[in-house]
Amino acid sequence: LTLSSGVMAQRYVVGTNASFPPFEYVEAGEIVGFDIDIVKAIADLQGFEVEFRDLSFDSLVPGLASGSLDLVAAGMTISEQRKKVVSFSEPYYSANQSVLVHQDSEEDLTVLFGDNDIGVQTGTTGDAWVRNKLIKADILTGEIRNYDSFVFVIRDLANKNIDAAVLDKPVAETYSKNNPVKVVAEVITGEEYGIAVSKNNEELRQKLNEGLAKLKENGTMDQLIEKHFE
Ligand code: GLN
Description:
The chain is of the alpha/beta class. 34% of the residues lie in helices and 28% in strands.
């Protein structure tokens, strides 16, 4: 009994939010980046196909839960809260939060204390941190401004429509290379990124973990880090 010959490879729908360089961003109309390369490399090694969907960050976990997405590669931090709804691969990258201001600004970390407007991308750990640690504690008395995309956070910061942004440091550093913004503080949150899958998809989670282990072993992971981060 041969079922395998000529059977089409399993095709998975991958959700991402392509406003998170160098992990995922749009270049010449295509979704590219470190996470995208990782998922493509795992797919090659493990014999499946992938197609990417660029969605708002806060719709990614619900997309897994509803079954419209099979996996999420979006620099997504492994958190206890998210683990109630989805499962994660082994961690593949570590990051902290950071504070970004306009390059002309003289503010530092204290921009978060007082009557300033802070931009965040909705549903991120940065969003939760500003809400839980700053707003609830009455440390920040200005507004938290929520955006669907970091592209618009950065645009508003560059235009001085907001006073600061809180986002993952590697991404803040990447944006600061091509925009009039600068990182003025790091917030040690000790986050680890994982690829997310729906809770009942243990088979796919195993395929991802095996793939990640192979990428680390065969040097691809180091090559991709070198390609996407200086
Ligand atoms: N690492 C952050 C989080 O998981 C931000 C991810 C993102 O905006 N793509 O919430």
